[in-house]
Task: structure prediction
Amino acid sequence: MPFLAYVGFFLVLPSVIIGIGAFLNADNAFTLDNFRNLSRSYVFKATIDTTVISAITALLGASLGAILAYAIVTGSPNGLLRRLTVSASGVLAQFGGVTLAFAFIASIGSAGFVYLFAKAHGFDYYAHGIWLFDIPGLDLVYLYFQIPLMVLVFLPALDGIKPQWREAAESLGGNTWHYWRHVAGPLLFPAFLGAVLLLFANAFSAYATANALINQGQPVLAQQIAGAMSSEVGAFEPGFAKAIAIEMIIIVTLVTILYSLLQRRTARWL
Amino acid sequence: MAVAARSIHQTRRIKLQVFRYVVFALAAIFFLVPLGAMIEFSTRANNGSRTLEYWQSIPKYPDLTDAIFASLQLALITSIAMLVLLVPTMVWVRLKLPRLSRIVEFICLLPLTIPAIVLVVGLFPMYLWLNTNLSDSILTLAFAYVVLVLPYCYRAIDAGLGAIDVKTLSEAARSLGANWFDVIWRVIVPNISNAILNATLLSVALVLGEYTIANNLLYNNLQVELVHLGRDNAGVSVAVAVASLLFAFVLLVAIAFIGGRPRRVRPEAVTTVGIGPTAGSPR
Amino acid sequence: MMERSGVEVRLENLVRRYGTVTALDGLSLTLAPGELVALLGPSGCGKTTALRLLAGLEEADEGRIVIGGEDVTGLPANRRNIGMVFQAYSLFPHMVAWENVAFGLQMRRVNAAERKKRALDMLELVGLGRFANRYANQMSGGQQQRVALARALAIQPQVLLLDEPLSALDAKVRSRLRDEIRRVQLEVGTTTLFVTHDQEEALAIADRVGVMQAGKLEQLGPPTLVYSRPATPFVADFVGLTNRMSGTVRAGAVEVRGTSIPLVHPDVPDGPAIALIRPEAVTLASDGEMEEGPLVGTVIAVAFLGAVSRVTVDLGDTTVLAQLPTSAASQHPAGTKVRLALRTDPVLIQREEAVPAAS
Result:
C-alpha cells in the first residue's frame, strides 16, 4: 500500500533516525553523553521555563476558555453569535505563530497603538522593561491560541450537560451552588482537566511563536532543539538535538495519554 | 406574590445576560485588537498619517514574492498528494480491511503527538541526502507537509466517510459493473465532496502558515521570509502577514460554513473537524 | 418525617404567556389528596407548562398555586418539596443509582448512613434493589426511569410530578412501567400529576383525566366518563377514534342514515350536524341477500388488533370504522357486503357552520 510506504518513509524513518541518532556521538559511535548533556544548565532551564509557560497558559487558557464556552453555550444553540464565535475559535486556534507574534508586536509592542495610547495617558506598561519579548510576553501571546482551542474542546462537554439535570437538582431541593458543587462540577471536571493537558501539550510543542517573538536567547525547549541542530549558533550537535527531541516526545506523549484517558471518562458521562 | 416570584427567574436571566455580554465584549477586545493593530500598523506612515506604501511595495521584494509563490505551490502539491494518498487508502480500509482501521487511525493521528520541531530533527539528515542526491527545490518540503496535514485531513475525511454507507454504495456500484477506480472516483468521492473540500482547505491553511519545518530545514517559505523581512521592513512584513491571514481566514470561514451546512453530513461529522489535540500544529 | 398521605393541590386560574403565545389560559385544577390526575393533550396544549409551573421551574404570569393549604406561588423549585420524573436522561450520570436517589436527602442534610439506607429502601420499592450500584448508562431506559421515580419519592414530596416519563420507552416496557408507577403511587399515597400525550396511558393510570387544548382544560373527569361521554368534540376526537357522520338534528336527537340517536346535550336547535360516533357503537351484519339501503356497504379493510378488530366499511359517499370482537369481524372479510347498525348511545354533534367548541 503506497500509504504505508509513504508514512514509513516520512514518519517512521525520521522517528527511527531520532531514536538511533540520540545514542550516537559525532563519530557515529554509541554514547549516552547526549542524554547526560540534558542536565546542562541552559537546557534544564529551558525545560523548566517551557513547562511553566505551558502550565500557566494551559490553566489560564482553560479557565478563560471555559468561561467563554459557557457564555456561548447559554445562548441559542443555532444563534449567529454561537456560529460566529465557534468559527472564529477554529481560525484563531490554528493561527500561524509568525503572524501571531506580529499581531502582538503591532498592537502592544513599543510601536503599537495600544502602547502609544496607554503611554500618552500616563500608563507606561514597559516602564520596567519590554516584557513582551520575554516569558511574560510569551504567556500572553500563547493565550491567543489557547483560549480558542479550549472553546473548541470544551463546548462539546458543555453541550452534553442536560437541562434536566439542573431541573432535577432544583426539584430535589438543590440551589445553584449545590448544582455546581454536586452535579455540573463533578461532571465537567474530567473534561476540564483533559483540556488543560491538551493545552499544555499544545503550548509545550509550540516553536514558531516563540522564535518569531524572541530572537535573543532561546527560552523555549523547541528553540533549544533548533539551536542544537543548526550550525548557525556554532554548536552543531545533532545527537544532542535528538536527545532533547526525545525528552520532548516523552513529556508530550505522557500528557497525551493522560488526556485520552480523561477523554474516555468524559465520553462515558456526557 | 406572583410579582415577587417572577423576579427570581428574571433576575437570574438578567444576570446571565449581563455575564454573557461582558464575556463576549472582553473576548472581542482581546482577539480583535491585535488583528486591527496589524492593519493599523501596516498603513501607518512615519508622520502618523495613513499610507498604502507598504502594501504597494510588496511586489518590489523578489525574495518575498518568490516565497509567496513557493508557499502557494506547496499548498497545491501537498493537498493533491494528501488526497491521492489518503482517500483511496481510507476507502479501501473501510471496505476490505476494517481490522486495520485502528492502526491507520493511530498512524494518521500520530503527527499530533510529535511536535513539528521534533519531526524536523528526524527529517534533517533525510533532507541533507535529498538535497545532494535528488533536488534542493523548496517544493520537496511537500513531503514533510503531507505528514503534517495528515491528522487534520484524516479527521475531515473520516467524518465524511462516516456519514455515508461506503459498503452499500460500493457494493451497489460493483453490482452495476463499476471497477474499483470507478467506485472511488464516481461514487465515493462525489458523496464526500464536502469532506474533501474541508480537508483541502485545511491543508492549504496549514501549509501557508507553516514556519517550523521550513525554517529549520533552511527553506524560505512565506512565513520564514516574513520573519526575515520583519527585521528590515516591519511595515511590509506586517502587510503581507495581514494579507495571508485574511486569505487563511476566508478559507477557514469557508470550512465553517461548508461544515455548518446540514445537508446529509451528520452533526458530529462536522464538529470533529479541526478539533482535538493540535500539538504539532505549525506554530 | 413528613406525612405520608397526600395533600390537596390547587391550581387557580393560571396564566402563562411566552411572548405573544398564551401557553396556559386560565387553568384551574384541584387535585384531591392522594389522587392521580393525568393531563392529556396534543403537544403544545399547555400540559407541560402546567406541570412546570407547579414544579416551580417556571413562573405564572397570573394565578395561584396552593399545595396542602400553603400558597407556594412565589417559592422557587428547590423550596417546594416536589418530586419530579422527567421524560428521560435526568439521572446524574456520574452517580450510581443509590447516590442519585440519595441526592435529594443530601440536599436536606440527612446524614450519610441514613440517606443510604433510605435510598436503598426506595430502590427496593421500585424493584431495583439489586441495581443500587449501577450507573445510568449501565441500565435500560425503563430501569433508569424507575430510579428516577425512586429519586423523586425519596424526598417524601408533597406532590409527585411525572412529565411524560414513559414516552422514550418501547411499548412493552411502557405498559409494565405504567402499572408499576401506579402501584407505587398508591402505596405511598402521594398526590400526583401525570402529563402525557398518550390517551391509553392516561386512561389506564389516572383517577381522573384532564383533557387540554390551547391552554385550557376541555374536560376533567374519571377515565370512563371522558371516554364514553366526551364533553366536547375535541375530547371525542382526541380520546379514542371517532366516526364523523352527517345527519340532522330533530327534537333532541340526531338522525343519521335512518337511525335516530339521542344527544348528550339535547338542547340544540334543529338542523344539519355531524354526529361523532365511536367505532364500537357500530355493528355489522351480513345475513342473506341485502337490499340497498343507507347503511349498506362493502368491507374494504380489516385490521387485526388482537382480541378486537377494526373494520373499514365503504358506504359510497363516506367510510365508517367499526370495532368488533375478532371472532365477529372474521365473518366479514374484505369485499363482503354488510349492513351497519348504530347503537343508540347518546352522542355529541358538531355543527358544520359555526363550531366554536371544536378546533
Notes: DSSP finds twelve helices and no strands in chain A. The domain at 40-269 of chain A is CATH 1.10.3720.10 (MetI-like fold).
